[in-house]
Amino acid sequence: MKNSYWILSSKNKEDYKSLESDITTDCLIVGGGIAGLTTAYLLAKENKKVTILEADEIGYGASGRNTGKVTSQHGLIYSTIEKEYSSEKARLYYDANEDGLNLIKNIIKENEIDCNFNIVPSFVYTEKEKYIQDIKKEYEVCKNLNIPCKYMNNIKDVPLNIKSALCFENQGQFNPKKYVDALAKINYKLGVKIYEHTPVVDVNIDEECMVKCANDHIIKAKQLILTSCNAWYDGLRLFFAKEEASRSYLLCGKVKNKILEGNYINVENPTRTFATHKDDKGIDLLIAGGQDHKTGKCSNECDNFKAIERFAKEIFNIDEILETWSTQDYVSVDDIPFMGRISDGKNNVYIITGTSKWGLTNSSAGAILIKDLITKNHSKYEDLYNPSRLKSYINMKFLEHNMEVAVDYIKGKFISGSTELPKKEEGKTISLHGKRYGAYRDKDNHLYIVDITCTHLGCELSFNSGEKTWDCPCHGSRFDYKGNILNGPALRPLKTYNEGKNKIEPKIL
Ligand SMILES: Cc1cc2nc3c(=O)[nH]c(=O)nc-3n(C[C@H](O)[C@H](O)[C@H](O)COP(=O)(O)OP(=O)(O)OC[C@H]3O[C@@H](n4cnc5c(N)ncnc54)[C@H](O)[C@@H]3O)c2cc1C
Ligand code: FES
Predict the structure, then answer these.
(1) Which residue lies with its CA nearest to atom 1 of ligand 2?
(2) N or C: which end of the chain has fewer CB within 10 A?
(3) In angstroms, what is the span from residue 5 Cα to ligand 2's centroid?
């Protein structure tokens, strides 16, 4: 998998050992991204005994691979929430994300974190006449909610044909990997136990939560907090059916001609998102991206990288491309994350998921929400983000998403494999002795053959040529070509040829 500019430029990460014994803790956090680390920080400050389990390394998930925008402006979110819910909920969403933004600013200031944080404006814009009305509507909604913002007919010093834009001043931009690496170190000093390379594979919820790791060690906890981005444990809330895994493509390059500092995103398709960034030496960089698609549903991922490179070179006169990468987040059916108590019946289990590509401020707000639920038993944001909210089931997108999943499931079963093995650096579905497998041949001519029936709910995986991975079109699980899990909700790796059939094992109850 390609690493992001942020991962490659954060040099001060500590290594944390994996769990090698059974332990007991007050609060167990599964997932070492911004959601888990921020929740750990706030709980440790309340004198809770906190443990974090991370399947990979701290900040190697979406938190180390995004655009680095720390903002309460999330596309056209306020008009969307007002339409779907109410103006009160839209204002609450703003307050929560401002709390998230201020928490990030305060953590950086109090702990003197060097993560290239800058105050910049955020813009949502369009280059197409037909979307001007949508931006005007967002402006009217924001004005009525007393959200400080400015309507603009164009943006000077940005080489695009912008016809309409909405600006939020005083937002932020940083290197998210430097931030989470520093936050992990601060947590460690506060007494938080951090274990990397410790994937969780099972859970049993009772008065006490019992979690099992892949190496069979057991952790007992009073409270379990799931911050693994996807919802691998469901608690019968059907998260897999109400959030969609969406991938996007990003690059970081050196700009020749400076543009107005800020965070930018358009409203039309294809999505174009970009942000200015200054590195440690004060060199002006541009992070640019887009080309979103549902995970596992792209015929040629390499074309998406090319499209982003063209955009950056043609529009912004990029001098040199430093890195390109892709990543995914889980987008909820109503664009509001699922954060809080997983269900009324399980009041010692909490979750942050469905952060919908705006998880830096949202999951920081989620950390405040979960800390308040654990320490005070209530939060003003409980209802807004309620993981069981009724409208997340009674929703057109919920129906469309699940219809599509059903079609993908069936379609996958009818795809027959090729009888020819792949060439070097090629991956494809093959048929061997009447059975379907996924095969990839690396540049040294080693052939890797795996069972490509997803271990979550049994959909057939498709090959991602950009990342050399097997991706699931149903709920976004991803596996490397050797069969190791890269993204859930799947909890089991793929079996290799001769190991037998994959075990399908969702953790729904
Ligand atoms: C292209 C793109 C651009 C984005 N840009 C922005 C932006 O500019 N601003 C913004 O606010 N948001 C942005 N986002 C969204 C943001 O990056 C995410 O919402 C946020 O990082 C989610 O944080 P997290 O901690 O929940 O997840 P992650 O950072 O993914 O952390 C979850 C961790 O859990 C671990 N894990 C998973 N399963 C297990 C298991 N079974 N056991 C143990 N550990 C496990 C993973 O290894 C991972 O490290 C973007 C997203 C994308 C896709
Ligand atoms: S992720 Fe659900 S079936 Fe693959």
Answers:
(1) 475
(2) C
(3) 29
